[in-house]
Amino acid sequence: MTRPEPPDVVIVGGGIAGASAACKLTAGGLSVVLLEKQDTYQDLVRGEWLAPWGIREAQRLGVYDCFSAGGAWEIREWMTWDEAVTDDEVEAVDMTRFIPGVGGPMSFPHHAVCALMAEQAAASGARLVMNASKIVVVPGERPVVTYRTPEGAFELRPRLVLGATGRGCTVGRQVGITMRNSMHHWGGGMMVEDMAGWPPDVQAMGTEGDVMFMVFPQGYGRARLYLNFPTANKHRYRGPGGVERFMAAFELECLPDRGKAVTEATPAGPLSVWPSVSSVPEGPPLTEGVVLIGDEAGNADTVLGTGLSCAMRDSRTVCDILLASSDWSPAAFAPYVEERGFRLERLDFGASIISRLHVEFGPAAVERRRRVRKLMARNFAAQVTGLLNMVAPEDVPEFGFSEFFAERLFRETA
């Protein structure tokens, strides 16, 4: 077993959280090994939407240019087409006005941006190891990381390990960090191209029948499509014909021209479906010698769309701690644990409201959306949860995270 020179930090997982951390730490003078299980970055159908507050985090991390070079596309308007919304009620929400100097959210090919971040980290001095398999992390004052590549077996003894393997929580499970999981629905996603009839600067969402849909343009006729649907339908888009059934699901009365711009697009990547799980750590997302970041440290339901922004915030916060002091003990990360716990609590609450509002189906759910929409039109404060998609959770008014607010929003009587 080969034992290279011990690095300061080993990062397990070369996604948005791990690769951005590698860039920040190497730029700050630390020695880093970045382990990624893929031999090349490929479209694995991950989140591809970064909120304005996440864009600000990317700027602070020094990786904003990776998004631009990787094909990031600014989305300027948000349209809600829904069976509970009449044609004359559909309005375009200006998404560029929430954080001055940042603009609207970005939609981008996840794998392309990750590859550019990994290249930036390597150019700054990080050792990038692709095709790393059988990764095992043993926590401790001097943690141990073992892994294999086609060249053989390796062992590293860094000062610290960052676990950034995503929702699989590979590192977290190995070091004994447990999660409280819940699931409300299932989701699926796929890339398409040749979607020329879709407004290029407009993202859309809505609910009709037994699907909640999302459309995120990426420019030049490309877009990432998502569906959320009941757990009872978890097999609907699997197996032979699954792609065709997925595309056909966008033939909706509420969409302009019955969704023709979407249904006639060309599939341009794999279709993936998954249980939309919310995971909250049952303790701090760290132990001796190991800190978790990104989805591995806990995540809200994917319907909220804040996973990548959270990953960037985690990366920036933890990197700032590592670069500010030589004290890397668990106690040094108390500010990260406190801020992340507060943030995840708010995001999880907000996601539960959005899921109940948009990913429940049938006549009662339609009437609920119609009633809530009228309430929001009368009282702007009722729209507060929607801010979570745009601004950082700490900047959303506190009343939007109370059970009283949820009860007022969803009560069945006028």
Automatic annotation (TrEMBL):
Alphabetized InterPro entries for the sequence: FAD-bd (IPR002938), FAD/NAD-bd_sf (IPR036188), PheA/TfdB_FAD_monoxygenase (IPR050631)
SUPFAM superfamilies linked to this entry: FAD/NAD(P)-binding domain
Residue ranges constituting the FAD-binding domain according to the UniProt record: 8-326
Residues spanning the membrane: none
Keywords for the protein's UniProt record, in alphabetical order: Oxidoreductase
Endpoints of the signal sequence: none
Protein name: FAD-binding domain-containing protein
